[in-house]
């Protein structure tokens, strides 16, 4: 898909101002922003960009040339979870969405719960996303097995955390779909990619049971389904990660054992 405006557009409420989203359909980080916009029922115009030929308007919104980036009321923001939290505050709980109904919130209401959410957003950012890419990009068999074991260990830790926070769920923090779910679900939705290229699946064993409950609920949530993709379309793109020839900033960071950008 080449750069240009997509057909995704939502009519907005008076006075809220237009949100422009720069996105790439296959990018899990951009999917976080799209889920946030859909979940908050915000009017937005989506501009699909070709990251191999970054347009000037993307670089103006984010000089690093990464997606997602948004422009709201003439001001730009980037970093997927910063964007999600901004949208939650700029279009607060109780304000009226594009469907004429009050919006919910992405962040929990209580300060302690908000702090817990931020702890696990940080965990997803530092552990899940980096190790997901490491599983894909590592080429030697011994290194692959080590990366796969590390990744499943992180998923097991998430499952245990969900069990402690909200045993019945179904979402990370309880009954409401929220910001931790948004951080995690784009990568969990790509587990089929890990199975395809690395024969890695989350085991069907008790220590992962709460994660499986979460996964079933999260991937079928309306705002997630609205941003979903056909796995066969994404495999050719992620094959470049699987053979370690991808040239994205994230791929280069993993290749050099550096922090993700």
TrEMBL record:
Residues 17-95 form the GST N-terminal domain. One of its GO terms (biological process) is glutathione metabolic process. CDD domains: GST_C_Tau. Keywords: Oxidoreductase, Transferase. One of its GO terms (molecular function) is glutathione dehydrogenase (ascorbate) activity. Its EC number is 2.5.1.18. It comes from the Eukaryota. It catalyses: RX + glutathione = an S-substituted glutathione + a halide anion + H(+). This is glutathione transferase.
